[in-house]
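ESCALATION

Customer reports they have been waiting on this structure for their group meeting. Please prioritize. Original submission:
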Amino acid sequence: MLPLFPHPSIMPDDHSTKNPCVKVCKFSTSGDTGVCRACFRTRYEVRHWKRLSDPERTAVNQRVRPLMEAEAPARGPKKLRKVEKRIAKLERRLCRLEEERRALLAQAAEGRSNR
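Update from on-call: job pushed to the front of the queue and completed.
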């Protein structure tokens, strides 16, 4: 079987076409020209990532990776950000459930007082 990349000089590095998304999409400006504050890609690049060719993905990564690495100490490790995002989501759900419980308790108390 012939190797997929016959010569090491034309082998892509592991991260050249990998999606740089860190699942924290916040754009700096509105409209299609906004840039994500986490991965530094434009809205167009985020929306069309799957349709971009490998050379286009590599070019985007070469542009954004240094920016992401420079910002990494300020943002913290990726795993920590993911955990914090999950905690925030669970806290919002807990608040909704507590409100629902208060409403049900109020209904039950009202039902007992009407007897």
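Sent to customer with the following note: Residues 17 and 57 are 5 Å apart (CA to CA).
Escalation resolved.
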